[in-house]
Here is the input.
Amino acid sequence: MALTLSNSQNLTKREQKHADILAAANALFCDQGFVHTSMDEIAKKAGVSKQTLYSHFGCKNTLFASSITAKANSYQLNSDIFIDPKQPEKTLSYFAEQFGQLMVSDDALAIYQTCVIHADGHPEIAQVFFENGPECILSLLSEYLEKVSSIGIYQFDEPRHCAVRLCLMLFGEMRLKLDLGINVDDLVEQRTHYLQSSVDMFLRAYRI
Here is the structure.
């Protein structure tokens, strides 16, 4: 599943090249892994020169980090969804839907697996992934839960821990099985219900 950006018809020429590079990098990182993907290959797949590639992204680590951020943005997992602390039920349900879809996507599985495979020889890959993926999402969610607490209906005394708990709940049995290469057809139909019931349980646990 390649990275796509909405409203591409409205992008400037430079923005389109930027998007093309990210899409090419995402596809190659997922298919071949970070270590086995060269900047030459990315430039060729994106249809740009190496000079253009390096003018947009100074090194492969930067490009990898940007591709992770772009993937999260394609699922709207950014600050835009954490605007209204007065509606945590609605906000967290939407977050669960988007986060839950991302966590079981082919791209998320491929990137996570390549980080695990190369963790011993290239620990910096896992660090880049964590800082630009999970860490960003956990930070946004933690800050949002802290704002929700200030209203007085829910109390998240340790918002970071609460954010981690919610995200791990949303992984669910499906992500566990997918990481192990086990068929998940029996879980697909109930996935939406599982995600929503996890949010409901989470909110009940922290309601004052």
Q: What stands out?
A: Confidence is low (pLDDT under 50) at residues 1-7. DSSP finds eleven helices and no strands in the chain. Residues 31 and 71 are 15 Å apart (CA to CA). The two ends are 42 Å apart (CA to CA).
